[in-house]
Amino acid sequence: MWAHQFDPLAALAQGLPRLPGKPDLVLIFGDTDRLKQSGMLGELAVRWPDAIQLACSTGSAVCGPSMADNGFSALAMGFDSTRVRVEVETIRSADQSRDSGRALGARLAAPDLAGVYLMTDGLVVNGSALVQGLQDIVGSDCEISGGMAGDGARFAETLVALNGAVGAGTIAGIGFYGSAIRFAHGCVGGWDPFGPRRTITASAGSVLEQLDGRPALDLYESYLGPEAAELPASGLIYPLQIWDPARPDDQFVRTLLGIDREAKSLLLAGDVPQGWHAQLMRGSIDRLIDGAARAASDAMSAHGLAPQACLLVSCVGRRLLMGQSTEEEIERVHETIGPGVPMAGYFSYGEIAPRKGSLVSGLHNQTVTLTLLAEAA
Questions:
Q1: Is residue 215 part of a domain?
Q2: The predicted structure's pLDDT at residue 110
Q3: Are 235 and 347 within one domain?
Q4: Which of 16-25, 145-154, 163-172, 250-259 has the lowest mean pLDDT?
């Protein structure tokens, strides 16, 4: 296996980058508007017609140890003994997410399916339901990771593109097949809970309607104070931690994606089951950077081989809170996995990865997640 990280716009301007061979897979992360307008994706699809080319939108792309706002990053990979293929679903509403995951799984399923990497629309898809639907078909032994496309703090439009065709509501799953491919994952937040623990007394899927019998938006705004005027963007730095009271150690974080002022409800990136507990969270720059380093250490300790590529997905809420310190997070990850490992990624509206010590994947928010790849000889 080989991997090469590069800037696709610069590569087209200067001639395509020299690669060790013909790529089997090219992943591209970049600015929403320029992704639609640049023509770059179509040109790359023509130049590498035999490669799977998958792109998703973001406000900031990860380019090795650095970050590019309104720019692009790409990771090309070639495999020696691993077969890759991609399947796509298109949905119009979040309530179709679990069925879409099942349909995707049915088309990807095979005895030698080792893992699936997901790239999905970030505003329409219910990420937790999508992952559950996929797991319903491929089982918990298949490693699932990836993320939901982002749009910075705008929340206007998120896109996924396959081989140059850009579309909203798109869910793409890349299947990796064979016994040679190896994955390792890291997933850490670094946020701290504050305020009282509440009970989710009314919800519908990813819509949070009431906490302790009070309208969720009213309660949320009372904590944010003047920052409530900037919702939903300001909500990115005040996520919710949720957990089943019967399993208090299995905690998930949910990011705010939108608000309904008339219904006084919150739209979150994944399911918020009724009867679960919830608590607001906030972060500090040092804690978040340390969390990124722990995610990288966890991934490295779980990998039986030296990694040959790294895909990093971090939450846009971390980006907004840390500002220019965000590059420190990326640098710490890069240092931990090794400066010789090609790395690319993006800031998302939801991160998909297994929790530490488990192969079972789920949707996370406000985390740094890593997928390390390598092939056994």
A1: yes
A2: 97
A3: no
A4: 250-259
Based on the domain organization, do 80 and 219 belong to the same domain?
Answer: no
Both 9 and 150 in one domain: the answer is: yes
pTM exceeding 0.85: yes
SS3 string, the chain, reads CEEEEECHHHHHHHCCCCCCCCCCEEEEEECHHHHHHCCHHHHHHHHCCCCEEEEEECCEEEECCEEEECCEEEEEEECCCCEEEEEEEECCCHHHHHHHHHHHHHHHCCCCEEEEEEEECCCCCCHHHHHHHHHHHHCCCCEEEEEECCECECCCCCCEEECCEEECCEEEEEEEECCCEEEEEEEECCCEEEEEEEEEEEEECCEEEEECCEEHHHHHHHHHHHHHHHCCHHHHHCCEEEECCCCCCCEEEECEEEEECCCCEEEECCCCCCCCEEEEEECCHHHHHHHHHHHHHHHHHHCCCCCCEEEEEEEHHHHHHHHHHHHHHHHHHHHHHCCCCCEEEEEECEEEEECCCCCCEEEECCCEEEEEEEECC
- Parent domain of 263: 207-282
Q: Which of 97, 76, 56, 111 is nearest to 346 (CA)?
A: 56
pLDDT confidence of residue 88: 97
Last residue of a domain, one of 282, 299, 333: 282
CA-closest candidate to residue 127, choices 102, 98, 162: 98
Confidence of residue 251 (pLDDT cuts 50, 70, 90): confident
Q: Is the domain of 110 the same as that of 22?
A: yes
Give the end of a domain, one of 267, 282, 297: 282
Asked if 345 and 305 sit in the same domain, the reply is yes
Residue 202 lies in a domain: no
| Residue 323 and residue 176 share a domain | yes
